[in-house]
């Protein structure tokens, strides 16, 4: 018995959809995504650039931006902005991942200061039309260790292991920034990215 026209069309549609899904899975393995992870701070801002393609993730560069503690507040922010602008311009990330603002009731000033630095990050990204995605500290920890309350040492070890590094990235702010970037890569692989 020959299939009807409707059955034949449905079969072709099914094959076409299956083909598109297969192609999209294949393309994920060849598409390179460059992520700039940032751990914001006034004294020290960590940054880490990674490239992710399929199951392979490599470090491009990691480091810190330091501001002069003897300077007034505004010049320190200007210095951070200048350095971040150079990093973004040099490495041209596809996306910037940053830790969400968190404030403990006993340290509200820290949250306000971190908010200023985050504002600079968002501004520099907007100037170049780069999306910024924020992740809670607990989500970053859970993404890497499986535990949202992991210690800094556990996080640093997992960053080192995940990226195939011989030692833990130093200083810790750079390791934290790499952790944020890795969290974004994992979230995007599982289609869990929520824009800020």
Radius of gyration: 21 Å
Q: Estimate nothing, just give the exact number of structural domains.
A: 2
- CATH architectural name of the largest domain: 2-Layer Sandwich
How many beta-strand segments? 5
Strand order of the largest sheet: 3-2-1-4-5
Mean pLDDT: 85
Given helix and strand content, the structural type is alpha/beta
CATH superfamily of the largest domain: Ribonuclease H-like superfamily/Ribonuclease H
N-to-C span: 56 Å
Number of DSSP helical runs:
6
Characteristic terms for this protein:
53% helix, alpha/beta, 2 domains, 5-stranded mixed β-sheet, Nucleotidyltransferase, domain 5
Task: Provide a descriptive summary of the structure in words.
By secondary structure, the chain is of the alpha/beta class. It has two domains: 1-30; 32-189, Ribonuclease H-like superfamily/Ribonuclease H (Nucleotidyltransferase, domain 5), CATH 3.30.420.10. It is 53% helix and 19% strand. It contains six helices and five strands. It has helices at residues 5-30, 73-91, 108-127, 137-145, 152-162, 172-189, and strands spanning 33-39, 44-53, 56-66, 95-99, 132-135. A hairpin with a 4-residue loop joins strand 1 (33-39) and strand 2. Helix 4 crosses helix 6 (172-189) and helix 5 crosses helix 6 (172-189). The longest helix is centred in the N-terminal third of the chain and has 26 residues, at 5-30.
């Amino acid at each position: 018995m020959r299939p009807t026209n409707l059955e034949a069309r449905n079969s072709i549609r099914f094959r076409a959809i299956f083909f598109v899904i297969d192609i999209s899975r294949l393309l994920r393995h060849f598409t390179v995504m460059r992520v700039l992870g940032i751990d914001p701070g006034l004294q020290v801002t960590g940054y880490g650039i990674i490239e992710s393609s399929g199951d392979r993730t490599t470090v491009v560069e990691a480091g810190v931006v330091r501001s002069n503690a003897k300077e007034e507040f505004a010049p320190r922010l200007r210095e951070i902005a200048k350095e971040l602008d150079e990093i973004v311009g040099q490495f041209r990330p596809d996306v910037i991942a940053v830790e969400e603002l968190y404030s403990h009731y006993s340290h509200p000033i820290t949250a306000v200061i971190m908010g200023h630095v985050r504002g600079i990050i968002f501004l520099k990204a907007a100037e170049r039309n780069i999306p910024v995605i924020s992740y809670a500290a607990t989500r970053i920890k859970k993404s890497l260790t499986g535990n949202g309350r992991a210690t800094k040492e556990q996080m640093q070890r997992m960053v080192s292991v995940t990226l195939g590094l011989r030692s833990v990235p130093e200083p810790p702010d750079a390791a934290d920034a790499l952790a944020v970037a890795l969290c974004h890569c994992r979230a995007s692989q599982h289609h869990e990215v929520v824009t800020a």
